[in-house]
Structures are given as C-alpha cells and as structure tokens.
Amino acid sequence: MNLSRNISSGIGGLIRLTYLNLAYNAFTGNILKKIGNCSKLGHLYLNNNQFGGEILSEMGKLSSLESLNICNNMISGAMSEELGNLSSLVEFVAYTNNLPGPLSGSIGNLKNLKTLCAGKNNQLTGVIPNEFNVLTLEEPDDA
User: Fold this and answer.
1) What superkingdom does the record give (predicted)?
2) pLDDT-based confidence at 142, cuts 50/70/90?
C-alpha cells in the first residue's frame, strides 16, 4: 500500500492505540501535534516517508512509547528536550533526516534506551553529551 498526503488530525482521538506503523508510504507535511494524545502508544513507525518539520515536544507525552522510528524523512529542527520524558523508550531511530545542532542531553534520561541511530544527519554538530554516559546502548542486529 502506498498512502500519501497528510495524516488526519483525527489520529489524536485514537487514545487506545498501542501500535502505529505508517512506514514506507508517501506521507508529507509535519508530524501532527495531536499524536501526543495517543498516550498508550507503544510503537510508532513513521520512517521512509516525506515528513518535514520538527520532532515535536508533544511526543514527550508518549510515556508508554518503546520504539520510535522516524528515519528517512525530511525532519528538521532541534531535537525536543521533551524526548527525555519517554521513560519507556528502548529504540530511537532517526537517521537520514535534516536534524541540526547537538544531540539533546535529555536523551541521557532514557534509562531503558538500548538503540540510538541518528547517523546521516549532516547538520548534527557538537560532542556527545555527558548525560549519555549513563546509557547502556547495544549495537543493532543489522549493523
């Protein structure tokens, strides 16, 4: 299936949604703020689309989120500090976007994080934050 256009704002009304996979389509526009209303969401796959805009602070409300994949889009703007609120996050995949600036030190708050992939973001700068010293990351199986 190859879905396209923007995601409907009605997605925010799916408060019992636990798994959302919209990968490998042709969605455009920004990731909707209303996604933060899906408080039971455990797995969110938006990879391989044409999303732009920023990683929204509203994503920090997704306290049940274990896996977030936004790779291969056109996402820009600094990583939101609210990402550090995703206490259940195990996997964060954000490579091949246009993420600028340094990695957010708030990622160091993610005590369950095992996989962090942020390569191929040609605008990332700076050093790996000291907050990352508390993480125990693992190499992905397909590396």
Assistant:
1) Eukaryota
2) low
**What are 5's two structure tokens?**
């256009």
CATH of segment(s) 4-134: 3.80.10.10
What pLDDT is recorded for position 103?
83
Q: Which residues contact 134 (CB under 8 A, 6 or more apart)?
A: 108, 111
Would the CA dihedral through 81, 82, 86, 89 be positive or negative? negative
**Domain residue spans in the chain?**
4-134
Whether the per-residue pLDDT at 18 is higher than 70: the answer is yes
Amino acid at 135: L
Nearest to 36 by CA among 8, 64, 9, 12: 12
Angle among Cα 120, 19, 76 to the nearest 5 degrees reads: 30
